[in-house]
Design brief:
Layout: H1 7-34, H2 39-47, H3 66-79, H4 81-101, H5 104-115, E1 121-124, E2 140-144, E3 147-158, E4 165-171, E5 181-186, E6 193-198, E7 209-220, E8 224-225, H6 231-267, E9 269-270, E10 273-274, H7 279-307, H8 313-338, H9 348-356, H10 366-379
Parallel strand pairs: 1-4
Antiparallel strand pairs: 2-3, 3-7, 4-5, 5-8, 6-7, 9-10
Helix pairs in contact: 1-3, 3-4, 3-6, 3-7, 4-5, 4-6, 6-7, 6-8, 6-9, 7-8, 8-9, 8-10
Acetoacetyl-coenzyme A (CAA) binds near residues 89 and 133.
Length: about 375
C-alpha cells in the first residue's frame, strides 16, 4: 500500500467485507440465474450507510471520503458484482452529481432518500445512436410553461426498471454537440415515462438494464439539474467519479477470482500432487496477483486524488481501463486453472468470468478511456 489507510478506512473495509461475504455472496449465484433484483440487500446496505457514503451528513449521508467508498465498493463487488454496479451508479454518479450541482430543495427532496436507499438512483445518458459519443444524443427537452417536455429513447440504462430517480440528459431542439445538453431529475411516476424490456445479459444479471422511453414526458422545471446547457459537463464529471466506482467493482471481482483460483489450485490434485505445486500454475497465480495489485494501486491513487480535490479524470480513466482489463484477464485465468470445472455453474469463477465482461464496456469502453488519458496528456502538462 503506497499510503496507509486510516483506522476508519480499515474498519469500513473489514465490516463491508464481512457483510458482503456473508450476505451478498450467499444469493449472488441464485440471482444470476433468476435475474432477481437485490432489493432486500440494497435495503440492508442503506441501513449500514453504504448507499449514502458520499452524501453529506446534513442530507442523511455518511460524509465519507472516496477512498473509503472505493474500499467498500470493492468488497461489495467481491460478493456480488451486480449489486456493486447498482451501488456505483447510485453513489458515484447520481448522489455525487446531485450533491455537486443540485439546489438545496433538490437535495432535500432527492438526496436524502437516496442516502438511505429508500430510492435508488440511475443515470440515463446512452441512446441507440449515442453510446461512446454522448454529445450526439437526440432526446429533446422543450420548455413549456412550468415544465420541460422530454421526448426520446435511452438505452442500456442500469436500474431502468427499478430505480426511483434518473438523471436524464436531453438537448434543446435544434442544438448540436455538447453545448445544448441539459440534465433533468426524472422520477418514474412522471407522465410519459416508460421503462422498456429488460435485457437478457451475459453477466451482472441481477441488475436490470433496459430502455427508457420518454413520450411527452412532463418534468417540472424545478427539476433541471444545474443550468440549461450544463448537462454534458455534469455527465462527464459524474463519469469521472463513476469510473473510480467501476474500477473498484472490477478490482473486487479480480480479487474474488484470484482467491478462488488459489483455493482450487491448493485442493485439486493431479499427477499425485496439488496442481499448485506445478511451476506453470504458480507463475500464473503470481501474475494474477501482480495484476490485481497494480489495479488496486491505480484505483486507490485515483480515489485519493479525488479526495485531495485534484483533477483526476485521466487517473480515473487509467484505473477504470486497467482494472476492467485486469478483471477480464484474471477471471479468464481463474477459469483456466479450474479446467473443466471452471466452465460449470458449480464454481464461482464461471459467473465472475461472465460478470467481468461488461467492465471494459460500460461507463466508457477501454478505447474511450485511452482518449480521455491522451487528451489530458496532450492538453495540459507533462506526467508526474
Ligand atoms: N469534466 C467536466 N467537463 C468535461 C469533462 C470532465 N471530465 N470532460 C470533458 N468536459 C467538457 C469539456 O471541457 C468541453 O467543454 P468546453 O467546450 O466548454 O470546453 C466539453 O465537455 C466537451 O469535451 P470534449 O470535446 O473533450 O468531448 P467529446 O465530445 O470529444 O467527448 C469523450 C469526449 C471522452 C469521448 C466522451 O464523449 C466520453 O466520455 N464518451 C464515453 C461515454 C460514456 O462513458 N458513456 C457511459 C454511459 S453511462 C454508463 O455506462 C452507466 C451505467 O449504466 C453503468
Amino acid at each position: 500500500m503506497p499510503f496507509e489507510l486510516t483506522e476508519e478506512q480499515r474498519l469500513i473495509k473489514k465490516s463491508t467485507r464481512e457483510f458482503s461475504r456473508k450476505t451478498l455472496a450467499a444469493t449472488a449465484d441464485e440471482r444470476d440465474r433468476t435475474k432477481e433484483y437485490p432489493a432486500d440487500n440494497l435495503k440492508k446496505m442503506g441501513a449500514l450507510g453504504l448507499m449514502g457514503m458520499l452524501v453529506p451528513a446534513e442530507y442523511g449521508g455518511e460524509d465519507l471520503d472516496t477512498v473509503s467508498y472505493s474500499l467498500a465498493l470493492t468488497e461489495v463487488a467481491y460478493g456480488c458484482a451486480a449489486t456493486a454496479v447498482i451501488m456505483s451508479v447510485h453513489a458515484s454518479i447520481v448522489c455525487g452529481s446531485l450533491n455537486r450541482f443540485g439546489t438545496p430543495a433538490q437535495k432535500e427532496k432527492y438526496l436524502r432518500p437516496l442516502a438511505g436507499a429508500e430510492i435508488i438512483g440511475s443515470f440515463a445518458l446512452t441512446e441507440p445512436e449515442a453510446g461512446s459519443d454522448p454529445a450526439a444524443l437526440q432526446t429533446t427537452a422543450v420548455k413549456e410553461g412550468d415544465c420541460y417536455v422530454l421526448n426520446g429513447i435511452k438505452r442500456f440504462i442500469t436500474g431502468g426498471a427499478t430505480s426511483g430517480l434518473f438523471i436524464v440528459l436531453a438537448r434543446a431542439p435544434g442544438s448540436e454537440g455538447h453545448k445544448g445538453i441539459s440534465a433533468f431529475l426524472v422520477t418514474p411516476d412522471m407522465p410519459g415515462f416508460q421503462a422498456g424490456k429488460i435485457e437478457d445479459k451475459i453477466g451482472i444479471r441481477a441488475s436490470d438494464t433496459c430502455d427508457l422511453i420518454f413520450s411527452n414526458c412532463r418534468v417540472p422545471a424545478e427539476n433541471l439539474l444545474g443550468n440549461e446547457g450544463d448537462g454534458f459537463k455534469i455527465a462527464m464529471s459524474g463519469l469521472d467519479s463513476g469510473r473510480i466506482g467501476i474500477a473498484s467493482q472490477s478490482l473486487g471481482v479480480g480479487m474474488a477470482a484470484l482467491d478462488a483460483a488459489v483455493k482450487y489450485a491448493k485442493s485439486r490434485r493431479q499427477f499425485g500432487k496439488p496442481i499448485a505445486a506445478f511451476q506453470g500454475l504458480r507463475w500464473m497465480l503470481a501474475e494474477m496477483a501482480m495484476d490485481v495489485e497494480c489495479a488496486r494501486l491505480l484505483v486507490l491513487n485515483a480515489a485519493a486524488m479525488k479526495d485531495r480535490g485534484e483533477k483526476c479524470a485521466a487517473q480515473a480513466s487509467m484505473a477504470k481501463l486497467y482494472a476492467s482489463e485486469m478483471a477480464n484477464r484474471v477471471t479468464a485465468q481463474a477459469v483456466q486453472i479450474h479446467g473443466g470445472y471452471g466452465v460449470t455453474k458449480e464454481y464461482v469463477v464461471e459467473r465472475l468470468y461472465r460478470d467481468a465482461r461488461v467492465f471494459t464496456i460500460y461507463e466508457g469502453t477501454s478505447q474511450i478511456q485511452k482518449i480521455v488519458i491522451a487528451n489530458d496528456l496532450l492538453r495540459d502538462k507533462a506526467v508526474g
